[in-house]
Amino acid sequence: MQIKANQIAVVTGGGTGMGRELARQLSAAGVHVAICDVSEENMAQTRELCLAQAPAGTRVTAFRANVSQEAELIAFRDAVKSEHQTSHINLLINNAGIGGGGGFVAGDRADWERTFGVDWFGVYYGARTFMPMLVASTEGCIVNVSSVNGFWATLGPGVSHTAYAAAKFAVKGFTEALITDLRLNAPHVTCAVVMPGHIGTSIALNTYDVFKLSPAHIAAARERMVKAGAPVADLPDEAIRKLLHQRGVEFRDNAPTTAAQAATIILDGVRAGRWRILVGEDAERLDKMVRNDPEGAYEAPFAEAWRSAATTLRTGA
Predict the structure, then answer these.
(1) Contact 158, 142 (CB under 8 A)
(2) Which of 122, 127, 261, 276 reaches 20 to 30 Å from 170, CA-CA?
(3) Which of 124, 125, 164, 208 is labelled catalytic?
(4) What's the mean pLDDT when you consider all of the chain?
């Protein structure tokens, strides 16, 4: 699909990270952009950054919406129609996501369903809500952001990671199924599934904000750290909060691929008409490893081999 001036793009989770960078790069190309997010402050910053580099006349609008709530996405769609004076869009990027809800057997159900609600139903509701506007265009594309956890459902043998992985697998399968569905029913609309590796975003920080660091969340985090060998069993809750925040900062700042680089890879993939977009050398490496040894992918030797490979990619050592 061509990406060109005066097209209209919708980006969910546009307040930070890849969503912000996608909005910036699209608006710099003269594409009119509508973003949604749960943080009005973050969206205001994104909008300011976009308008600072966009050609004159480029519209950038923002709407507060929790993508796990269909009614809020419908309200967002209606705002897009009104503010952009349009009955169509050309690009829908279902990008919003959070982490959390790792344990299914012994974890907190509310945390699990919150994560699954954003990461899967946010994509589903986004597609349901905006598909008619994509079909109404002369050329359109729906981009759904999955993850490497959409083909490798773990963070390693010592960590439960069920809600996020289940949602990202669903996003991947849904998008692949859309390939045929769109060809049969709306051949002028294409789709792409995006599977990022470790990208420098604020997803960990945003997740902790969403969960408000409840006592139950802190207790679960402490337990995970202890199982991983960290001497934190006797630390007070406030110390755990600070550790989680610091880990979120390190996840954002020490990633091998920046959010801006990820956005470029995604948009280049859309331009090239690719339906499967791996983001980052780590994602490409992990994809090959899982394909080469699917039966062993959830065993300790595989996890150790992946940690070694990831360290090499990150440090170049």
Answers:
(1) no
(2) 261
(3) 164
(4) 92
Q: Is 112 exposed, middle or buried (0-12, 13-18, 19+ CB in 10 A)?
A: buried
- As given in the structure block, the two tokens for residue 54 are 């966009």
Is the predicted pLDDT of residue 256 greater than 50, yes or no? yes
Place of tokens 């989770």: 13
Rg (alpha carbons) of the chain, rounded to whole number:
19
> What's the CATH fold of domain 8-201+258-297?
Rossmann fold (3.40.50)
Per the annotation, the verdict on 164 as an active-site residue is yes
Kindly report, residue by residue over 100-141, the tens digit of the pLDDT.
899 999 998 999 999 999 999 999 999 999 999 999 999 999
* Residue 38 contacts residue 11 (beta carbons within 8 Å): no
pLDDT at 317 over 60: no
Distances (CA, A) of 131 to 126, 162, 214, 268: 8, 29, 37, 22
**pTM of the predicted model, to two decimals?**
0.89
Residue-level length of the chain: 317
Other Cβ atoms closer than 10 A to 95: 30
- Residue spans of the domains in the chain: they are 8-201+258-297
CA contacts within 13 A on the Cβ side of 28:
14
